[in-house]
Design brief:
CATH superfamily: Winged helix-like DNA-binding domain superfamily/Winged helix DNA-binding domain
Strand content: under 5%
Structural class: mainly alpha
Low-confidence stretches: none
Shape: globular
CATH class: Mainly Alpha
Number of strands: 0
Distance between the termini: 12 Å
Number of helices: 4
Mean pLDDT: 97
Length: about 60
C-alpha cells in the first residue's frame, strides 16, 4: 500500500515530527516531505496526520 519512503515518513509522522523535521531527518526537501505526507493521508483516506498515526498504529502498519 505505502512505498518504502512513505513508510519511513510515516514513522516520523507517528513520532510527531513536522514536515521540516522529517525533511532534515531524511535529507529531502520540505516540499518532498509534504508530498509524502499528503500521499499517506490520501492512501489512508484520512484528513490529518494525527489520524494517520492512529490508523497506522491500529492497523499494525509500522
Amino acid at each position: 500500500m505505502l512505498t518504502e519512503r512513505e513508510l519511513e515518513v510515516l514513522e516520523y509522522v507517528c513520532k510527531g515530527y513536522s514536515n521540516s523535521e522529517i525533511a532534515d531527518a531524511l535529507f529531502i526537501s520540505e516540499h518532498t516531505a509534504k508530498a509524502h505526507v499528503t500521499a499517506i493521508l490520501r492512501k489512508f483516506d484520512v484528513k490529518n496526520r494525527t489520524i494517520a498515526a492512529y490508523f497506522a498504529g491500529k492497523n499494525h502498519i509500522l
